[in-house]
């Protein structure tokens, strides 16, 4: 990942209207989002209709059109993870509507998220569960969002959130257990 200071400087220049900064931020953002999307989509079933490049393009367009006011790299990647989550949820809802009430689009949750790596989970159920978790503990929900939707490691999240890796690991374990319990009900 690019250094936080460089990213934040370029982001500030872009938000101040510098057209040259837009190109630099675009390169930093797009490369990182594409790497994360490829990593996540590689875990999905072969027949998944959404491809990594389409996911990144849609996320990038939504973020660029949103007239963002990001304070730093952490804020931006939190917004990016949330945007990726919304795109996947919208995609699942659209597929569910097309199937006229049958089960929604199924996604495999990354093995670090649940003890059983073979578990299948409906992205809409995960979205509801994350919303519930966020109402109780926003940081834990953000960690899961960054892990699952942005494909970040505990170390990357620790750097991003300016917390220790142990704190991220502890919060992640709690959140996974909470999600498992919530989704098992």
UniProtKB/TrEMBL annotation:
The UniProt record lists the RNA polymerase sigma-70 ECF-like HTH domain at 6-183
A single GO BP term for this record reads: DNA-templated transcription initiation
Recorded superkingdom: Bacteria
Q: Which keywords appear in this protein's UniProt record, sorted alphabetically?
A: DNA-directed RNA polymerase, Sigma factor, Transcription, Transcription regulation
The Gene Ontology CC terms held by the record are: DNA-directed RNA polymerase complex
InterPro entries, sorted: HTH_Sigma70_ECF-like (IPR053812), RNA_pol_sigma-70-like (IPR039425), RNA_pol_sigma-70_dom (IPR014284), RNA_pol_sigma70_ECF-like (IPR011517), RNA_pol_sigma_r2 (IPR013325), RNA_pol_sigma_r3/r4-like (IPR013324), WH-like_DNA-bd_sf (IPR036388)
The record's listing under Pfam families reads: Sigma70_ECF (PF07638)
* Family, similarity comment: Belongs to the sigma-70 factor family. ECF subfamily.
What is this protein identified as? DNA-directed RNA polymerase sigma-70 factor
